[in-house]
Design goal:
two-stranded antiparallel sheet; alpha/beta; Haem-binding uptake Tiki superfamily ChaN domain-containing protein; Cobalt-precorrin-4 Transmethylase, domain 1
Length: 275
């Protein structure tokens, strides 16, 4: 009987030690939605203080690799995230800064005709809406798209926690759903959008309809690529605490992808205010 009790106790101790060891080697990913430009409720100092509390080993930035030197120093430091990250790195030199963006995103959009068709198309839809030329179902879609922005403007003026939570994520996802899934229901069904064109850098013409659809598709491609890049970096930095800084409209999508990609891996997703 005593032997059985001793064995039982040893098993508990072994399991406890093993669990602590596994927890200690977990890779932590903290995705923080940001605003790129300084505003009273979110500026480099506020973000720096958040980083101070989180104490990351790596900070991943929504940048192309071309924005870094060969030894991963930032070439320019202008936006909130870059100023805060660089200040943190200077204070804690062991901290690594790395890019995770879809490489060459801006030129990619221009070369494929997504720009300027994105803005031109939305302005054209707006003009049809104001002239009462859309069908009732099309007008409902565009009105819902416009209305979806109001709650985002509201939370963006509050504490960062207000857009770094599941409610904020849902509001962002709702708005982007209308922008990238519902607006194409208008542009793909109305002939006006098939007969307005822009010229791509290679001299080819592309219609508003096709350009906007490519832009809508790129939203998925870009976010999925960024999540894969985050995972690649995480796999090379096991057991580290990694902060991902992204525009808060991307947060819901990146988190959704990371939840899928981290399944059955020793990686945990956390909120910065729960550490």
């Amino acid at each position: 009987m005593k032997t059985n009790i001793v064995v039982f106790i040893l098993c508990i101790l072994f399991y406890s030690c093993k669990t602590k060891e596994q927890t200690a080697t977990e890779t932590e990913i903290i995705v923080i939605g940001t605003q790129h430009k300084p505003v009273p409720n979110f500026n480099p100092e506020i973000l720096f203080n958040i980083l101070e509390n989180v104490k990351p080993d790596l900070i991943l930035l929504e940048l192309d690799s071309i924005k870094f030197t060969s030894d991963f120093r930032l070439k320019e430091v202008r936006e909130n995230e870059l100023i805060a990250a660089e200040k943190y790195r200077l204070k804690y030199p062991k901290t690594k800064l790395r890019p995770f963006e879809f490489e060459g995103r801006n030129q990619y959009r221009i070369d494929h005709g997504m720009r300027p068709t994105d803005g031109l198309t939305l302005r054209f839809v707006d003009s049809l809406y104001k002239a009462d030329l859309l069908t009732s179902s099309e007008a409902e879609i565009f009105k819902a798209y416009q209305d979806a922005l109001d709650p985002l403007i509201d939370i963006a003026a509050q504490d960062p926690k207000e857009w770094n939570n599941t409610i904020g994520d849902s509001l962002c996802e709702h708005r982007q759903f209308y922008q990238y899934k519902m607006i194409p229901k208008i542009t793909n069904s109305r002939e006006e959008f098939a007969h307005k064109f822009i010229t791509k850098p290679n001299g080819e013409k592309i219609s508003y309809r096709d350009g906007y659809q490519l832009w809508a598709n790129f939203w998925d491609l870009r976010n999925q690529t960024m999540a894969k890049n985050i995972m690649t970096i995480s796999e090379k930095n096991k057991g580290k605490r990694i902060v991902v800084l992204c525009g808060f409209m991307h947060r819901y999508y990146i988190l959704k992808e990371l939840k899928r990609l981290t399944k059955n891996k020793n990686i945990v997703l956390k909120e910065y205010y729960n550490l």
